[in-house]
């Protein structure tokens, strides 16, 4: 019989509810405690998910509990101190994206994890969506030939500020919030990138940061990808939270359409592939594909811990994604093409 790993969740806000639902599915995991500065939020989560203990102090949590891991779905400003507490107690961490406010902070967190010899994974869930696992399978099959071009598009008019009002005040907004998903997805599908050009827009009035952006990536394999994303798009029906797009290769094209539908043109024929959801009892549209991917991401983390291997989106691997993010902001500010090798991946 597999030993159950004991974990805790720090942060019981809006998106953390999906994390808590996900952990509740695992027979080999037990969430023994939750922690939030807001006692009411922590108690509500504990009651809903049958969790034994509640804390408002992360320090008290680590001093009291014997944990096999901790999940930290908090705002990024709290990631470095909270992860540091976990590392000091030898506890592996799965850390919600965005990783940290800037690349230097990401590097410090990675360095601290490695100094403590503790596993660190970033909860980067787009690559764990059923749709994009299937897309990656098609790319790996070779049916498209050598990849030449890709486009990933995430555009919506959803009122993101209703559930996360703090976003109004965030100066680094949509690239950090959504763009980082697409940057990781571009690396997952097309490989590493060596050049970045970016243009941002602030369309909604009264917000501090950019709410639309386009990023052009040049990849090591010669492919070019375009990432476009917006919180200011008026469409009916609104495609939220779907990522649409296309991938071209020397032998074919793959269209990533709405509703989890892929259209593959290759070898002189066209076929349509429907990628279904997992049909969980707690998921609901339009969030289903994201909620499914939360569970897949968590499963990967637990399997990595059990096998003693580095997760696919480890802290160290994620430095490459956040170097692209920094390059995108620098490009938008300067109007220049940026080569992300200016941002070394080794921790400072």
From TrEMBL:
Residues 132-254 form the GFO/IDH/MocA-like oxidoreductase domain. Pfam families: GFO_IDH_MocA (PF01408), GFO_IDH_MocA_C3 (PF22725). InterPro entries: Gfo/Idh/MocA-like_OxRdtase_N, Gfo/Idh/MocA_oxidoreduct, GFO_IDH_MocA-like_dom, NAD(P)-bd_dom_sf. Gene3D superfamilies: Dihydrodipicolinate Reductase, domain 2, NAD(P)-binding Rossmann-like Domain. SUPFAM superfamilies: Glyceraldehyde-3-phosphate dehydrogenase-like, C-terminal domain (SSF55347), NAD(P)-binding Rossmann-fold domains (SSF51735). GO terms for molecular function: nucleotide binding. Residues 7-122 form the Gfo/Idh/MocA-like oxidoreductase N-terminal domain. This is Predicted dehydrogenase. The lineage of its organism: Bacteria, Pseudomonadati, Pseudomonadota, Alphaproteobacteria, Hyphomicrobiales.
């Amino acid at each position: 019989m597999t030993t159950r790993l004991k974990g805790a969740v720090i942060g019981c806000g809006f998106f953390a509810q999906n994390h808590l639902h996900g952990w509740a599915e695992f027979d080999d995991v037990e969430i023994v405690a939750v922690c939030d500065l807001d006692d009411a939020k922590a108690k509500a989560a504990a009651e809903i998910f049958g969790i034994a203990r509640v804390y408002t102090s992360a320090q008290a949590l680590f001093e009291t509990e014997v944990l096999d891991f901790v999940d930290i779905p908090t705002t990024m400003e709290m990631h470095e101190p909270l992860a540091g507490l976990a590392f000091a107690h030898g506890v592996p961490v799965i850390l919600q994206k965005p990783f940290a406010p800037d690349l230097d902070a990401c590097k410090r967190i990675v360095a601290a994890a490695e100094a403590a010899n503790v596993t660190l994974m970033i909860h980067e869930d787009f690559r764990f969506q059923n749709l994009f696992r299937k897309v990656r399978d098609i790319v790996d099959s070779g049916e498209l030939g050598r990849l030449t071009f890709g486009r990933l598009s995430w555009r919506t008019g959803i009122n993101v500020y209703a559930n996360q009002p703090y976003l109004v005040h965030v100066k680094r907004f949509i690239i950090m919030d959504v763009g980082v998903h697409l940057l990781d997805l571009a690396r997952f599908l097309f490989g590493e990138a060596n050049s970045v050009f970016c243009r941002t827009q602030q369309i909604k009035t009264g917000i501090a940061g950019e709410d639309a952006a386009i990023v052009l990536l040049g990849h090591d394999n010669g492919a070019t990808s375009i990432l476009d994303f917006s919180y200011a798009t008026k469409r009916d029906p609104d495609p939220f939270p779907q990522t649409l797009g296309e991938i071209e290769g020397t032998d074919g094209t793959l269209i990533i359409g709405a509703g989890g539908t892929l259209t593959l043109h290759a070898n002189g024929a066209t076929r349509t592939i429907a990628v279904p959801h997992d049909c969980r009892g707690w998921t609901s549209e339009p969030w289903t594909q994201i909620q499914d991917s939360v569970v897949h991401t968590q499963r990967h983390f637990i399997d990595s811990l059990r096998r003693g291997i580095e997760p696919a989106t480890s802290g160290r691997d994620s430095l490459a994604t956040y170097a692209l993010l920094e390059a995108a902001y620098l490009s938008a500010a300067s109007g220049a093409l940026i080569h992300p090798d200016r941002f070394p991946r080794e921790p400072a």
